[in-house]
Amino acid sequence: MIITKLIRESATLSLNFLRANKLRSFLSVLGITIGIFCIIAILTATYSLEQNIRSNIDKLGDKIVYVQKWPWGFGGNYQWWDYMNRPETNIREYKRVARESNKQFVKNTAFFFEYGGNKVKSPIEELTNVKITAVMGDFFQINQWELAVGRTFSELELNKGKNTAVVGYNLATNLFAGANPMGRDIKVNGHKVSIVGVLKLQGQAIGGPQYDDVVVLPGLFANRFKKPNTRGVSSAIIIKGQDAIELKLIDFEIKRIMRSLRKLRPKDKDNFAINKLTMVSDSLSQTFGVIDVVAFIIGGFSLLVGGFGIANIMFVSVKERTGIIGLQKALGAKQNFILFQFLFEAILLCVIGALIGILLVVGLGYLASTFSTFQIFYSVKIFGTGIGFSILIGLIAGIAPALLAARMDPVVALRK
Predict the structure, then answer these.
(1) Which of 309, 302, 298 minimizes the C-alpha distance to 26?
(2) How is the chain split among helix, strand and coil, in percent rounded to 5?
(3) For residues 144, 110, 213 and 288, what is the CA-based torsion angle, rounded to 10 degrees?
C-alpha cells in the first residue's frame, strides 16, 4: 500500500515536471530512443532473418542429407583445393544409392543437376541466361515445392525422359506476358518442351533454393544435351531418412554406399561431402549470436551517451527544484521519498525513450513488410530486453542526482 502510494505520488510529480519542460524532456529521451532503436532494430532484423531462413529449412524437415562435391560452410580449415578435384555426383551413383540403401533408414531418394546460361523461348518472349534444374526420383516429394497451377512430373515422364517442364512463377509470367502457360510449348536451347506446371511465387525468400526463375526438367531429358560431372554443372543426391531413424545412421548408410561406389580404400579420405540441413541450423545460431553481440555494442554506445544526457538533465533538475525539495523535507518528506522521486523520473525518461524506439522499429517493420515479401517477426523477449536496458540506464544515470537530492539539508535548500 505504501509502495503503491509512493509510486503514484512520484509518477504525478515526475509527469508534472516533464510536461513543464517539454523540449528538455524530449532532448533527454532522444539519446535513449536512438540507443534502444539501434539495439531493437538490429535484433529484430536478425531475428526475422533467422526465422525466415529456418521456416524455409523446416519445410524440408531435419532428416535430409545431400551428397555433393563441396561441403557446406567456410572456415579456417576449408581446404578448397582438395574439394575442387573431387568428382560431382552422377546418375549412376544416384541409381545405386536408391537401389542399395536400407529402406528401414531411407524414405526417399532423388537426384538433381543444374546449370545456367540457357536460352528459353516462347511465341511471345525469349529469355537468356536461365537456370535449368534437372531432377530425378523423389525430388518433389523431398523438397515440397508448392505449385501455383498444374502438376509435377509423372513417374512415366521421369523414367522415360519426356520433354515436359515445370517453370518458376516469374519465368512463366515473363514468357507468356501473364497469360496461363499450362499446356503450351516453349523451346529450351532449341528443344521443344511442354509446360505441365508452374511453381508458386517464392518471392525474396532467404534460405533454401531460389526457384522463381528456373526451368525444371526431367533428368533423363536434360541429360541428352547436358550431363552431370561436366564443366559448369553442379549436382547432388538427396536422401530423406525415415522419421524415426537417427540422422547419424542415415549418414553411415550413405557413406558406406558412396565409398563402395568410388572404390575408396579404408585409409582413403572421402572424396564426397555429406551435407545436412542440421548443419545450417547449427551455424545460424552461432552467426546470429555474433550479430546480436554487435547490436548490443552499437546500441550500447548510444545508450551510454543517452545515459550521460539523462544524468546531466537530472542534476539540472535537482538544482532547479532545490527550493521544492527543501519544502518537501520541511513538511516531513523522508529521504526515501525524495530518492525514489528522482530515480523514478530518470527511469521514466528512459522507458519513454525505449517505447518510442520500439514504436519506430514496429513502424519501419510494417513498411518493410508492406513493400517487400520479406516477413518481419517481432519478439516480446527482444522488446523486453530493450525496456530492461532502458530501466538499467535510468537507475545508473539517476542514482547520483537522486542521492544528492535526498541528502540535501532542508534549511540550506529553503534559502536557495
Answers:
(1) 309
(2) 55, 15, 25
(3) 70
Nearest alpha-carbon partner for 67 in 254, 241, 206, 205? 254
pLDDT band at 282 (very low <50, low <70, confident <90, very high): low
Count of CB atoms within 10 A of residue 59's CB?
Answer: 13
Phi, psi of 149 (to 5 degrees): -145, 160
C-alpha cell at 341: 522521486
Measured distance CA(71)–CA(282) in Å, rounded? 15
Q: Where are the domains of the chain?
A: 2-56+283-415, 87-271
Classify each residue of 118-150 as buried b or exposed e, where b means 16 or more C-beta atoms within 10 Å of its C-beta: bebbbeeeebeebbbbbbbbbbbebbebeeeeb
d(CA 191, CA 168): 18
Mean of the per-residue pLDDT values of the chain: 82
pTM for the predicted model, two decimal places: 0.64
Contact 125, 175 (CB under 8 A): yes
Enter the C-alpha cell of residue 313.
538533465
Which residues touch 199 (CB under 8 Å, ≥6 apart)? 145, 146, 147, 148, 166, 167, 168, 169, 211, 212, 216
